[in-house]
Amino acid sequence: MSKHRHGWPEAKKLCRLNQNDITMAKSLGFQPDTLVRARPDPKQKWKLPVKEWIHELHFKKFGYVLGEKPLSAPPPTTPEEDEEAARLFEEQLYWEDYHARNQEDRAGKQQPRGPNQAAAAIPPADASWIPEQITDDDVPF
Fold first, then answer.
1. Which of the chain's ends, N or C, has fewer CB atoms near its CB within 10 Å?
2. Minimal CA–CA distance to 141: which of 106, 95, 99?
3. Which of 51, 46, 52, 54 is nearest to 28 (CA)?
4. Domain range for residue 32?
C-alpha cells in the first residue's frame, strides 16, 4: 500500500487555508499530510476546522495569530470626561425618580378635562407652598 503524499498547494485547497495559515502551520511543525488528515468528518462535530485549529494552536504557543490585528485598549478617559459622565448619570437617576414619584401622585387624581376645570386646578399666586428663592444648591445636579 503506497502512502499518499500531499503537497502544500493541495493541503491549502482541501483545508481552505491562506498563506498566513500555511506559515503558521509550518511554524508549528505540521506537514501537509497532517493537515489533510486532521480535517473533521461530518460526524465529528466536536472537531474544529483545520484553519481554526491552526489559529488556536499558534495563539497558544506564540501569543498571536498572523494576519490579525491585536486588540487595542480603549483610550484613557480624562477626569473631566469622568466627571461629566457621573453628572449625566446622576441627572438621569434624578429624573427617573422624579417621574416615578409624580406618576404615583397622578394615579389617584383625576385629570382636568375642560378649560374651566384646568383653570380651577391652578393654585392662586399667593399660595404659601411656593418657595421664596430657589438656588442652584436646591437642585441635585
1. N
2. 95
3. 54
4. 8-62
Cα–Cα distance between 65 and 24 in angstroms, integer? 8
User: How is residue 136 written as a grid cell?
Assistant: 442652584
- Residue 4 CB contacts under 8 Å (≥ 6 apart), including other chains: 33
- Residue 37 inside a domain? The answer is yes
**DSSP code of 39?**
S
Give the separation between CA 127 and CA 141, rounded to whole angstroms: 27
In a domain? residue 101 = no
Any domain includes 3: no
Number of domains the chain contains: 1
Whole-prediction pTM value? 0.48
Q: How do residues 2-33 score in pLDDT, each as one tens digit?
A: 477 889 999 999 999 999 999 999 999 999 99
Close Cβ partners of 107 (under 8 Å, ≥ 6 residues apart): none
CA 10/CA 39 separation, integer angstroms? 13
Grid cell in block for residue 61:
504557543
